[in-house]
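Blinded run. Sample ID left blank on purpose so nobody reads anything into the name before looking at the predicted structure. Input follows.
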Amino acid sequence: MKIVADESVDKQIVDRFRAQGHDVLFVTELDPGIDDETVLLQSRQANAILLTADKDFGELVFRQRLLHSGILLIRFAGLTPGEKAELVAAIFDIYGEELRLGFAVLSKRALRLRRRSG
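Blinded prediction complete.
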């Protein structure tokens, strides 16, 4: 699966996905400091799921109605980067293709997916 990891994502999560054979473009390695609109555009052009911990992408998708190819917003507090990597990888194993259908929020308690309309 192709993934674009925003620079807000822990490197351990990127490393975990790469070890599993996923194609991961990590903004921190490619073009740090680019704006969120550009990150969203790059993920859409690559037909990749955007992995982020930045709530601003919700604004871009729901208020500005910018197009995307699936977003997973990680909302973990109090977990180590290794624990986060384990949880995110498990969610991708179970729901990977469904994540392309919309905007998902992953917390310690639940995964919520809001499907794209139209």
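Unblinding after everyone has recorded impressions. The radius of gyration is 13 Å.
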